[in-house]
């Protein structure tokens, strides 16, 4: 083989490698472009700070039940009632639940319902004296639960590996009323759904952490419809280990939705997906019509010394924001018109 031929081969190989690299870069770029969210930001919204105070006990979750504000500290297993600028401890569930996972709970009048998936247990306790009124162990493993008007909605497992699940409506005496097999099944080892419930006066939503899916129920726990967020990506998260309703993934999961709240006819969803118009440090809220899940628009929460938002809730015309784990700020919120 001549030197000239060797040079030609080297040049040809270099060109082929360059083309492959260009195609790979283009493919990644094109994939990224397909994932860009086209948000419509509503500039007419404004926030006026009313109050702010530092939390002595710390908190990682904010809830509103019957127009009262509650804070949950999962590490201390405390639930406190906020009155003015005072934190009043009303319930400690350390005797019921041993791990530090922020277990979901629902408060109805003077009763609190705690859901403990790793023990398949549901507890009903009296808020005034912390006495356990009901302790029920469910037959099937479950991952999430919420109390509704006539009972409970439980997201329970329907396969041994707990990857495929369904929503089940239980009566107050824990009898199965209906099954809603509306979560897409998959057989590739990927998790179908994990997320959280958001309860309003007349509706209930289950919002996925890892997928763009949102499920809507009425106040009695009957399934109504499902819709997808404007971030319509489906990240296949392969489960490699499951132990007591806790998942271990092959790769670290990316949470698409972080928290949410209901205000009037709007579902406000805290998205973890940034876009070209806002930087990654912005706390972006996407708004959806409760009636049909249609997208309305987006806005960003007021920044606070680059501290990320842990949780938020809407109470009347006020927007309550929990910054990090130690500051609760109340804003007067100018809601979108006609909603």
TrEMBL record:
Q: Which residues cross the membrane?
A: 9-27
Name the UniProt key words of this record, in alphabetical order.
Membrane, Transmembrane, Transmembrane helix
Spell out the protein name for this chain.
Answer: TolB-like 6-blade propeller-like
């Amino acid at each position: 083989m001549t030197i000239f031929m060797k040079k030609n081969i080297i040049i040809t190989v270099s060109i082929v490698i360059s083309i492959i690299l260009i195609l790979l870069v283009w493919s990644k770029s094109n994939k990224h472009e397909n994932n860009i969210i086209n948000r419509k930001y509503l500039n007419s919204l404004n926030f006026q700070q009313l109050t702010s105070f530092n939390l002595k006990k710390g908190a990682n979750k904010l809830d509103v039940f019957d127009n009262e504000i509650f804070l949950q500290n999962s590490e201390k297993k405390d639930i406190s009632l906020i009155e003015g600028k005072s934190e009043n401890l009303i319930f400690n569930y350390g005797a019921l639940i041993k791990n530090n996972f922020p277990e979901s709970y629902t408060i109805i009048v003077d009763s609190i319902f705690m859901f403990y998936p790793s023990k398949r247990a549901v507890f009903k306790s009296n808020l005034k004296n912390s006495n356990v009124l009901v302790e029920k162990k469910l037959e099937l493993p479950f991952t999430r639960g919420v109390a509704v008007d006539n009972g409970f909605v439980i997201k329970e497992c329907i396969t041994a590996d707990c990857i495929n699940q369904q929503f089940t409506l239980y009566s107050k005496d824990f009898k199965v009323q209906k099954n809603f097999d509306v979560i897409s099944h998959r057989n590739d080892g990927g998790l179908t759904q994990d997320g959280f419930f958001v309860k309003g006066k007349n509706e209930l939503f289950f919002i996925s952490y890892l997928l763009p899916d949102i499920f809507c129920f009425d106040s009695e726990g009957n399934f109504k419809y499902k819709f997808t967020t404007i971030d319509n990506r489906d990240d296949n998260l392969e489960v490699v280990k499951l132990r007591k309703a806790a998942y271990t993934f092959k790769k670290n999961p990316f949470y698409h939705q972080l928290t949410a709240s209901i205000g009037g006819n709007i579902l406000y969803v805290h998205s973890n997906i940034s876009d070209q118009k806002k930087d990654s440090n912005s706390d972006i809220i996407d708004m959806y019509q409760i009636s049909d899940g249609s997208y309305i628009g987006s806005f960003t929460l007021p920044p606070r010394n680059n501290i990320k938002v842990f949780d938020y809730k809407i109470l009347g015309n006020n927007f309550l924001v929990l910054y990090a784990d130690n500051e609760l700020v109340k804003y007067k919120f100018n809601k979108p018109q006609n909603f």
